[in-house]
Every structure is written in structure tokens, then in C-alpha cells.
Fold this sequence. Notes:
A five-stranded parallel beta sheet has the order 3-2-1-4-5, sandwiched between helices. It has helices at 14-25, 43-54, 102-117, 139-152, 154-157, 174-183, 208-220; strands at residues 5-9, 29-36, 59-64, 121-123, 164-166.
Amino acid sequence: MNIKCAVVLLSGGIDSTTTMAIAQSDGFEICALSFDYGQRHKIELDAATKIARQFNVKRHLIIEIPLRKIGGSALTSNIGVPKGLTIQKIGRKIPVTYVPARNTIFLSFALGFAEVTGAEDIYIGVNALDYSGYPDCRPEFVESFEKMANLATQKTVEGKMNIKIRTPLIKLTKAQIIRKGLEFGIDYSLTHSCYDPSDSGKACGSCESCVLRKRGFQEAGVLDPTVYSD
Length: 230
């Protein structure tokens, strides 16, 4: 019996890695897609590569997209990454770490990859609870993209495919995500979340992503395997 493939967006962080484990548990072979988009560092891509090998994925592509030429984000320009935000302030407004249209761009590449591979299911680890307030992580964005996707490709308009955007984490807290991942045996020491790591790869411990990661492990009641510079 042929096992169907699902396209999974893999950043190398907690959410995308847990999402990939869920896709695998759903019975899919994994076609993983990561992006070298001009982000501040390549540590997350190193993490994604290690994780893809750990999961023995069918294919893992790293696509280059020069979003640094557009800029407009602390992750793709010389804007400083905010540090020291409290949990209460994270997510109240869209932060400067938002990369303009990033998930729209990533999902568009995933859609093309899906059409070529025949994968009708695209998994993305967006979350609308413990997150930074990015507009392209909301359910209404995902629903709109899925509708557009089924109007946009040859195979969908010919009735040969029906694209589904899977968001298994969208209503989970970071702690719930971590607990679910541990059920699958994920080694979270392989993952990377920090927006502004040191040259040696240590997480800063104080950017919004590190703060959310720390709280997630704390609330999950498990040891955080991250090496922080602070």
C-alpha cells in the first residue's frame, strides 16, 4: 500500500517539530519544507536539518527566499530584537519580529510542493494562544488561505486534489504542545526558538520567543533542555 505524503513546514522550533510528529502519527510520510529567508541566523535551519533526519522524512527541502531585501522586521533587518517583555505584554500588539506576509509566502511554496508531490495535506504549526500576535497565525487566515489554495492550482480546479491546511496546534498552549510532543518521544533539545542567539548558538533567554518557550516547559512541568546565555 502506498503511504500518502504530507507537506510539513519545518522551522526547527517546538511547534513545527511537534506538528511534524502529529502528521507522522496521522499516517503520512513527510515532505518537509524549511526556508532560508534572510533571517538573523541559520541556527534554526541547522536544527530543522537535524530534526528532519531524526524523523527520517521522505524529503526535506530548504528554499532560499531573500526577504532581507524587503526588510521591515527585526528578523530580516537591522532592527533590534525586543528583550525583557513580560508574558502579560506579549501578544498585545503585533511586534517588530513580525516578518511581512511570511506565512502567506511559506504556504504558497508549500502549495506548489504539494501539487507536484500529490500531497493534499499541508501541516503548519501556527498557534493562536501562546504566540506573539502575528496576524498570519490566526484561524481566519488559515481558512482563507485554504479556500484560495483550492482555487489556485491546476489539480484542484480539475478536481484531482483537495488541499487541506492542517493546524493541529492552533488552540493549544505551549505547555500542551510540549506535553503532546513528549508523548511522541520528541527530543526538544534538538529544537531552536530564540530570535537572537549568541554566536555559539546559546538562546538569549529574554526575547519573546524564549520567554514563551521557558514558560511552556515550566507549565508543562518538565525540564527545559535549552542552553540559555542568561
